[in-house]
TrEMBL record:
Gene3D superfamilies: MazG-like (1.10.287.1080). The gene is hisE. It comes from Hyphomicrobium denitrificans (strain ATCC 51888 / DSM 1869 / NCIMB 11706 / TK 0415). It catalyses: 1-(5-phospho-beta-D-ribosyl)-ATP + H2O = 1-(5-phospho-beta-D-ribosyl)-5'-AMP + diphosphate + H(+). This is Phosphoribosyl-ATP pyrophosphatase. Belongs to the PRA-PH family.
Amino acid sequence: MSDTHTLTKLAALIHSRRSDSADKSYTAQLLNAGPERCAKKFGEEAVETVIAALGSDASALRAEAADTLYHLLVLLESRHVAFDDVLRVLEGRMGMSGIEEKASRPQSTS
């Protein structure tokens, strides 16, 4: 039914909201508040998704997951990271196991 096409359309809509009035657009309010606010909101929604996942109400989990995806896209937009670039990263990881993919990442020196 839905696929990345829906998320791509949503990412484009979020991008277009940059120029909207914050009085009329929640997305514009978030973007105008900056990446820190967008990150905080994404984190809140992610926690709500985890809480919903621990419960037994599938509709609550679906709703929270949708909120989380929306807020992730807003966060990406706030940092000028194109959703298509994220999809390319995921595409590059296809065909290898998660263990292989993780091992191929550059090691942090911290």
